[in-house]
Design brief:
The protein is an alpha/beta fold. The chain has a single domain, classed as Nucleotidyltransferase, domain 5 (2-Layer Sandwich). Helices cover 29% and strands 28% of the residues. The chain contains three helices and five strands. The protein has a five-stranded mixed sheet with strand order 3-2-1-4-5, with helices on one face. Helix 3 links the parallel strand 4 and strand 5. Helix 2 runs parallel beside helix 3. It is globular. The chain starts with 14 loop residues before the first strand and ends with a strand.
């Protein structure tokens, strides 16, 4: 009688890392897989917020950036998100959390 190995639950399947970086005049969101390979990088300027620094730094720019990333979330069937921040906690941070939850993704951990 042969024993079969149990299938392990892969916690990291359908998971991505999302990095938020805020510069003086722009906001960048980078989506990577669990190995660290960049899948998509989007910024407020590339997602149609215009050239104004004031408009690109506004929390509403996060909504536009998430809309541009949503195609890749659906393409790779992402369900879980690990968040990495290299900025101070501000309105942008809370807006990003609301947008991720609004689109139905689970936030697993915040770094």
């Amino acid at each position: 009688m042969k024993l079969k190995a149990k299938k392990k639950f892969n916690f990291y399947r359908n998971t991505c890392n999302l990095y938020l970086r805020k510069s003086f005049s722009n906001i960048f969101l980078t989506m990577t897989d669990k190995k660290g390979n960049v899948v998509k990088c989007a910024s407020a300027g590339s997602s149609g917020m215009g050239r104004s620094k004031r408009r690109k730094k506004a929390p509403q720019s996060i909504e536009k950036i998430m809309l541009s990333l949503k195609f890749y979330f659906n393409l790779y069937k992402i369900e879980n998100v690990f968040l990495y921040f290299s900025a101070r906690t501000s309105k942008i941070f809370y807006t990003l959390l609301k947008e991720i939850q609004y689109h139905g993704f689970n936030i697993r951990r915040i770094f």
